[in-house]
Design a protein that fits this description.
Number of strands: 18
Protein name: Succinate-semialdehyde dehydrogenase
Number of domains: 2
Strand order of the largest sheet: 10-11-12-9-8-14-15
Structural class: alpha/beta
Order of helices and strands: HHHEEEHEHEHEHEEHEHHEEEHEEHEEEE
Pfam family, one: Aldedh
Number of helices: 12
CATH architecture of the largest domain: 3-Layer(aba) Sandwich
Catalytic activity: succinate semialdehyde + NAD(+) + H2O = succinate + NADH + 2 H(+)
Function: Catalyzes one step in the degradation of the inhibitory neurotransmitter gamma-aminobutyric acid (GABA).
Distance between the termini: 30 Å
Domain Aldehyde dehydrogenase: 2-415
Helix content: 25-40%
Length: 420
């Protein structure tokens, strides 16, 4: 019953909050993010269980006025069934609870396949689910090696017993899973790659824009789905923005061990991730970009990289055509609003976008014109449990969190009662 689902999700939330220090330490040990960020992730993760505990009791149907006197027309919302949940390593706790909270609130059972880099967070959540009284077989975790990931994903997407696939990860992997899911026409929701623009117009408060840029770009060392990947700065304030941004990066960002209290930038997830950052910098510099600060691996070790800022960047460079997923901030100078919007919308993905302006008319125009699922206006951090998370174009299908998130796990059934 919905009341019981609500109570158990609420208890799961309470247990996460009681154990937030241990859960955070698991995240830092698994993926390297600074402990303070990991603690923030656990609070954020738990908030989805709290939110959907409340939403579980608000799955309302409908009564529709019938066109015939001897009929009554009802709409029921019912759980889709078994949901396969495939999650990434960059938020190994939050990406699970955002999906699982909605699924369990709707009355579904779940099979979670965590990223091969971060299975322990998923298993720790499973232990707390047991303690919360979630029945055996409702929250299931299937960890696997990197070599088995593709095979396990294929099974989850093709097994007829699975009714729903929810995936967060790269666009390329999402397309493969969509092909697998098509064979049994499963319900799917996909939160895929981003390429977020961050536009700073001449009217912007430059200091606020710099603070928002720092938060948006360098959280989790640039390894978040909604991280800014391209900075577009109008020519009137371009030089001031770059100068102030460089100073803040050098002053406030500290590369180090995630368990060190001073650390704001932990290691990247693996050496392959570091090599991609290096490749993007090398390509940009070879085409005329300038390294303002950073630009190389950090002396701490092979997976650590200096927070990097590039200027004199063009749209032909790899770092403005591909998602870097690392601590690299390339800055493109632009002249007009129309030019900035055109550059921002040239990507085939559209997850998040940000812009800074103090012109009310411009704010409305640009917010409506940006081809993304989420827009931050004079704000660099936009994720929130109450708000719908998801993208457009090749950034995905469906929304997570908010009042809309539970709909991804519900089927709408129309019932016609005749002969009355």
């Amino acid at each position: 019953p919905s009341q019981e689902r609500s109570a158990r999700l609420r208890r799961w939330y309470e247990l996460m909050m009681e154990n937030k220090e241990e859960l955070a330490r698991i995240i830092t040990a698994e993926n390297g993010k600074p402990l303070k960020e990991a603690q923030g992730e656990i609070v954020y993760s738990a908030s989805f269980l709290e939110w959907f505990a409340e939403e579980a009791r608000r799955i309302y149907g409908d009564v529709i006025p019938a066109s015939a006197k001897d009929r009554r027309v009802l709409v029921l919302k019912q759980p889709v069934g078994v949901a396969a949940i495939i999650t990434p390593w960059n938020f190994p706790s939050a990406m699970i609870t955002r999906k699982v909270g909605a699924a369990l609130a709707a009355g579904c059972t779940v099979v979670v396949k965590p990223a091969e880099d971060t299975p322990l967070s998923a298993l720790a959540l499973g232990e707390l689910a047991n303690q919360a009284g979630i029945p055996a077989g409702v929250y299931n975790v299937v960890p696997c090696s990197r070599q088995q990931t593709a095979a396990v994903g294929e099974v989850l997407c093709t097994d007829p017993l699975v009714s729903k696939i929810s995936f967060t990860g790269s666009t390329a992997t999402g397309k493969i899973l969509l092909k697998h899911a098509a064979g049994t026409v499963k319900r799917v929701s996909m939160e895929l790659g981003g390429h977020a623009p961050f536009i700073v117009f001449d009217s912007a408060n430059v200091d606020r824009a710099v603070a928002g840029a720092l938060a948006s770009k360098y959280r989790n060392s640039g390894q978040t789905c909604v991280c800014t990947n391209r900075f577009l700065v109008q020519k009137g304030i371009h030089d001031e923005f770059v100068e102030k941004f460089a100073k803040v990066i050098e002053k406030e960002l500290h590369v180090g061990d995630g368990f060190d209290a001073k650390t704001t930038q932990g290691p990247l997830i693996n050496e392959k991730a570091v090599e991609k950052v290096e490749k993007h910098i090398k390509d940009a510099v070879s085409q005329g970009a300038s390294v303002v600060t950073g630009g190389k691996r950090h002396s701490l070790g092979k997976n650590f990289f200096e927070p990097t800022l590039l200027s004199n960047v063009t749209t032909e460079m790899l770092c403005t055509q591909e998602e870097t997923f690392g601590p690299l901030a390339p800055v493109i100078k632009f002249e007009t609003e129309a030019e900035a919007v055109a550059i921002a919308n040239a990507a085939n993905v559209g997850l998040a976008g940000y812009f800074y302006s103090q012109d009310p008319a411009q704010i409305w125009r640009v917010a409506e014109q940006l081809e993304v699922g989420m827009v931050g206006v004079n704000e660099g951090i936009i994720s929130s449990v109450e708000c719908p998370f998801g993208g457009v174009k090749q950034s995905g299908l469906g929304r997570e969190g908010s009042k809309y998130g539970i709909d991804e796990y519900l089927e709408i059934k129309y019932v016609c009662l005749g002969g009355l």
